[in-house]
Hints:
Elements: H1 4-23, H2 27-37, H3 55-71, H4 77-100, H5 106-139, H6 144-164, H7 166-192
Helix pairs in contact: 1-2, 1-4, 1-5, 1-6, 1-7, 2-3, 2-6, 4-5, 5-6, 6-7
Amino acid sequence: MADLAPLLLSVALGIGLAAACGLRVFLPLFVTSVLAHFDVGGTGLREGFSWLASGPAMIALGTAMVVEVLAYYIPLLDHALDVIAVPLSTAAGTLVAISTIVALPPGLAWGLAIVAGGGVAGLVSAGTAITRVASTTTTGGLGNPVVATAESGAAVTLSLVAWFVPVLALVVVILLLWLSVRWLAGRWSGRRSR
Length: 194
């Protein structure tokens, strides 16, 4: 059982950070870069991914994060970002998952990073795009800055929770995915009955 603890923590960290990439592509990567650079929490990166904790990576990811967060406050640009965010967040989710899932052999880690990390990030990103469309439709776009702020705040929170309390982050991600599936199933059955 003691051998399972590092595995569970490693997988939970990777999936939690990947889910946060679905909210903001670069923010969880930046958080990972900074915390790994300063060795906060004692969580290391997988061999071959130490570049993520380098100074140049922190600067590049920090710059990309600021640009991304601010761009979501610009009307029309926020929708354009949503279009490219799904594939970018899937790639970012895979990257952050593989770099932090250190307790598995490479073949298994890559498979899990692609399927779970990239998959969760893509699903979360698609959900945020749907939320933005709903916000635009119901508020004429006036509610979009509120949605952008909530998404950025959730990305920071989930990234930090994933880093410091990874199992809690995994539970939150699973719960949110379950609630989303239930909500979508309810909407789907409601449309079919019309």
